[in-house]
Amino acid sequence: MRDPYEVLGVSRDATAEEIKSAYRRLARRYHPDVNPGDHEAEEKFKEIGQAHAILSDPDKRARFDRFGTLEDAPVADFSGGFADLFEAFFGGMDVGRGRRNVGRDGDDVRADVELTLSEVVTGVEREIEYGRYAACPECRGTGSEGGVQPEKCDQCGGAGVITQLRQTFLGSMRTSVTCGKCRGAGSVILKPCPECRGSGLTVEESRTKVKVPPGVESGLTMHVPGMGSDGTGGGRSGDLYVVLHVRDDPRFERRGQHIYGTLALTFAQAALGDVVEVAGIDEDYEIDVPSGTQPGSTLRVTGAGLPPLHGGARGDLVLQVGVDVPRDLSEAQESLVRQLAELRGEPMPRGERGGLLGGIFKKGKRK
After folding, report:
1. DSSP labels for 291-327?
2. Is 195 exposed, middle or buried (0-12, 13-18, 19+ CB in 10 A)?
3. Domains of the chain
4. Residue 93: exposed, middle, or buried by beta-carbon count in 10 A (0-12, 13-18, 19+)?
5. What is the pTM of this model?
6. Nearest-CA neighbor of 128 among 203, 210, 202, 217?
7. Mean pLDDT taken over the chain
């Protein structure tokens, strides 16, 4: 097991808030939804989660700090009088760690973008609009009326924590607890800004451009670091996640890089062969129809499909053949069809106009 402090990139005296912030930042970066198909990122994400599970649990963290592992480490019984000892060591957290980083990271934001199949072929740059929390323009993000900086908390002296001296049978122990007056901020707002009510943030409509690469699929999420909501008190800005949606094209069905459609041929084209023009996603193509092409068979246009996400040859356009059967034949046309059937030695169809014998046969059946 790797050192969880090393995995999260924090020092051994990191506060619970610092550990949480580091975990959120790394989890966003290596989340499987942000890195689809990246097994290395997936393993990193799991490792980050395991590290956070250890360091966010006071008991597990204490055991790791003492033994360097959680495997086969002796578990102390903290019941009874030993509970006081545990409280002395870990009750206030932040033991001997001084002032904490009390800034709050900004929230992540989602935006949705709709694309056409032709844009999937070429890629596209899009300007998107989305709402986020931004630093209040009236107080410049301070939360105080007129932009005045909050005053240092007189309870904790700006440290955000209060150090207490506690007596145990091992001697005097110093512990730190979160300041109740400033709630760990280290400062207090005497006159909250009326615009943001002291939060330091207001809702803002933002714009940014994103470059969508060729070959994307619906549901793919693009990660734009630092473009989410603003943080407060020196916290980092959140990230923007752009979710892509590929609009359905009634002409085609997408299956990965290949697209599937239909091609309607006349009986003559299917029987004799032809060269026909078909519409693709981004251009038209000429396709050879072999003589004797059967209904339900497929014709393929190589390279007329969609590109893979990370570059490479495009897929194919696959067309399923359908044959248009003529309706309402004239007597002359019907006669020619019957002559063809006779020449090919096919059974003579009766049809609706089967001649004199056909008419007599039908009348006989009705009786």
Report:
1. TTPPTT-EEEETT-S---TTS-----EEEEEEEEPP-
2. middle
3. 1-75 (1.10.287.110), 253-324 (2.60.260.20), 331-366 (no CATH)
4. middle
5. 0.60
6. 210
7. 82
